[in-house]
Amino acid sequence: PESKMGELPLDINIQEPRWDQSTFLGRAQHFFTVTDPRNLLLSGAQLEASQNIVQNYRAGVVTPGLTEDQLWRAKYVYDSAFHPDTGEKVVLIGRMSAQVPMNMTITGCMLTFYRKTPTVVFWQWVNQSFNAIVNYSNRSGDAPITVGQLGTAYVSATTGAVATALGLKSLTKHLPPLVGRFVPFAAVAAANCINIPLMRQRELQVGIPVTDEAGQRLGHSVTAAKQGIFQVVISRIGMAIPAMAIPPLIMDALEKKDFLKRRPWLGAPLQVGLVGFCLVFATPLCCALFPQRSSIHVSRLEPELRAQIHEQNPHIEVVYYNKGL
């Protein structure tokens, strides 16, 4: 497109991430930008300004004096606060940029108050309530999930997390105290294995769209859905590992020192800080583990779909799907 002196061309694809998503580094840069907690501090006016820049640009109108960096910045601010399918503003705590501060507080407390049953139940419940809000806020517009299904997933994941936490807590009573510190991690891992498949049960029933290289839909596959959901469960558990495995080791060593014995109230803030430090890096790096657009070999798809694809296009060997987050 011809553009006036110094005006931005209209062919920058802001539907896609700024960095090459086929490389780990490009995905990491993308997710560092998406999960940047500083985006939570933006005012409503700043969000709306970014929304205007993005929507105008998509409609073919360049905001005067806009630079390419400002356009990308607006895109990422817009994406951080608005739902990609519905365009609605996402509840503050359901945004990707809230992941680190929220998880840091909840995980820090789970790791600090792991000894008494009521606090274990309370923090596991808070964590699953937060998960439910995030899942609801970021649900895909393609496969709408009903409020009933959301409720079931929420109750099941909470029950699973609390049962795992309390069951393991009683099992580890006679083991060294350090082992007990890892119980919250096991509970979170178990809850993820319940929560994510339940939240995405519709995809496991009807499948997710698979496409060819060019993005043409070839049909729906349950096998691809299973693979995608499995990858998401792995990266969610991976996200929790650094934050739930490193701080307990440090805290276990520190709590034996006089400094903390004399100041027991420092335990929780210190734990939250350590968890936060781990999460700032673990969250984007684990999101970047697998490409958002995953691929699966045609030979691994369901027989009917395989036959259908071979009929339409015998040369296709690999198909693609969006794995979700």
Provide structural commentary:
This protein is mainly α and 325 residues long. It contains 13 helices and 4 strands. It has a two-stranded antiparallel sheet. Strand 1 and strand 2 (217-221) form a beta hairpin. Helix 1 packs across helix 12, helix 4 (99-112) packs across helix 12 (267-287) and helix 5 (117-137) packs antiparallel against helix 6 (147-171). It starts with 23 loop residues before the first helix and ends with a strand. The chain crosses the membrane at residues 270-290. It catalyses: L-serine(in) = L-serine(out). It is found in: Mitochondrion membrane.
Label the structural class.
mainly alpha
Q: Can you count the beta strands?
A: 4
Helix content: 55-70%
* Shape, principal axes of CA atoms: globular
Largest sheet: 2 strands, antiparallel
Low-confidence stretches: none
Strand order of the largest sheet: 1-2
**How many helices does DSSP assign?**
13
**SSE topology string:** HHHHHHHHHEEHHHEHE
| Radius of gyration, in angstroms, nearest whole number | 22 Å
Main location: mitochondrion
Pfam families: SFXNs (PF03820)
Keywords: Amino-acid transport, Membrane, Mitochondrion, One-carbon metabolism, Transmembrane, Transmembrane helix, Transport
Catalytic activity: L-serine(in) = L-serine(out)
